């Protein structure tokens, strides 16, 4: 029996989804392999955040200090490395985010532990850690193992694990003193800059209506916008739509866009190329509308409509509006 560490990521006093997703996976692994889950939370005035995750871990190590207010990879590295050296957790999970991509490599150097990055699944087989990663832009799924080590570090891709609470644990929240004599000052936090008004984060959306090249012309996107509006969903797209400058890059789903995990993903005129589908592995239900019954998307979709989108989308929109009225 060993520990699984999860580095909790938060921003503007909110736990980020990636932390819930990692805790979900850590709990699943812990349950099967009799490990315990330790969440490591650094911040300032973050008691409420510790409470929020307390049903998803066995221990929350809470470093609540003014000097932890904003993320600083140097501070995190020193504190987490000392914890790793003290407890030898079998696994430490870190988000494959801007935080994690900065923290994980320096933590690997500091601890000497092997590091696997951008993992999309994790398991233990015959006692050995196996991490799944994508290679060649999502064309190949590779299962990797590691050189023997007392513990391992993995960064986890956003949106690949569930974020639902298991709610089966009751963590002891252990308050720790800030352990460093001085804060490493190689970098300094300056400010948070919000995205421009109107920008949406498709990785957080619960209902995505995604449009692909099958839409034909830029002006036809209005059809998809109206459908999305009727459903209360958000418009996203495949790469050719961005390449043509019809929609902005932040709405692109896929390996060179964003990974999304909506409850429902409706793909309209999208063929289902692997670079696109690699971005929707975390989606709940996938519904595809495509006039070609051989389109690869039908291999993954839960529901499919084989027909002309220009016939189906307006009909669906009208039906939704009718149901809303009635
Ligand atoms: C390095 C690299 C990275 C990439 N990253 C991404 C990425 O992040 N995201 C991404 O999406 N792609 C990415 N791509 C591109 C990817 O390979 C595909 O080319 C792209 O996903 C195809 O987009 P699409 O499905 O919209 O278009 P197409 O493949 O052209 O498919 C259009 C579909 O619309 C259907 N259709 C046409 N007319 C109608 C109609 N009237 N009614 C119903 N259906 C209709 C067709 O049957 C077809 O299946 C990447 C490629 C590379 C090389």
Notes on the protein architecture:
By secondary structure, the chain is an alpha/beta fold. The model has no long low-confidence stretch (mean pLDDT 93). It contains nine helices and 17 strands. Helix 8 (297-300) links the parallel strand 16 and strand 17. The strands form four sheets. It has a seven-stranded parallel beta sheet with strand order 7-11-6-1-4-5-12, with helices on both faces. Strands 14-13-15-16-17 form a five-stranded parallel beta sheet. The termini are far apart. It has helices at residues 17-33, 47-52, 73-87, 98-111, 221-231, 239-243, 274-277, 297-300, 309-325; strands spanning 3-7, 10-11, 14-15, 36-43, 59-64, 91-95, 115-119, 121-125, 128-135, 140-144, 152-156, 172-176, 207-211, 234-237, 264-268, 285-290, 303-306. The protein folds into two domains: 3-176, Rossmann fold (3-Layer(aba) Sandwich); 202-325, TPP-binding domain (Rossmann fold, 3-Layer(aba) Sandwich), CATH 3.40.50.1220. Helix 5 (221-231) runs parallel beside helix 9 (309-325). The structure holds flavin-adenine dinucleotide.
């Amino acid at each position: 029996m060993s520990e699984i560490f999860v580095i909790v990521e938060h921003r503007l006093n909110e736990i980020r989804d990636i932390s819930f997703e990692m805790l979900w996976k850590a709990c699943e692994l812990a349950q099967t392999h009799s490990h315990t889950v330790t969440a490591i939370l650094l911040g300032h005035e973050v008691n409420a955040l510790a409470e929020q995750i307390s049903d998803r871990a066995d221990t929350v190590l809470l470093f609540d200090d003014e000097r932890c207010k904003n993320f600083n990879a140097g501070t995190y590295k020193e504190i987490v490395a000392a914890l790793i050296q003290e407890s030898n957790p079998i696994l430490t999970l870190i988000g494959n985010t801007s935080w994690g991509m900065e923290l994980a490599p320096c933590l690997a150097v500091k601890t000497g532990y092997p590091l696997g990055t951008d993992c999309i699944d994790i398991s233990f087989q015959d006692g050995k850690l196996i991490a799944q990663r994508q290679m060649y832009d999502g064309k190949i799924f590779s299962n990797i193992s590691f050189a023997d080590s007392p513990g391992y570090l993995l960064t986890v891709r956003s949106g690949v694990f569930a974020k639902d609470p298991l709610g089966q644990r009751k963590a002891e929240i252990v308050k720790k003193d800030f352990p460093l004599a001085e804060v490493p000052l190689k970098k300094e936090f300056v400010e948070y800059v919000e995205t421009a008004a109107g920008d949406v984060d498709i990785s957080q959306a619960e209902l995505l209506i995604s449009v692909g090249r099958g839409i034909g012309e830029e002006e036809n996107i209005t059809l998809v916008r109206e459908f999305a509006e009727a459903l209360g969903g958000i418009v996203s797209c495949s790469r050719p739509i961005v390449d043509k400058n019809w929609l902005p890059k932040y709405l692109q789903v896929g390996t060179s866009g964003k990974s999304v995990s909506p409850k429902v993903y409706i793909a309209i005129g999208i063929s289902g190329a692997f670079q696109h589908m690699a971005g929707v592995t975390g989606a709940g239900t996938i519904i595809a509308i495509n006039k070609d019954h051989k389109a690869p998307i039908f291999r993954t979709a839960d529901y499919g409509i084989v027909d002309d989108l220009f016939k189906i989308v307006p009909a669906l929109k009208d039906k939704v509006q009718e149901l809303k009225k009635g």
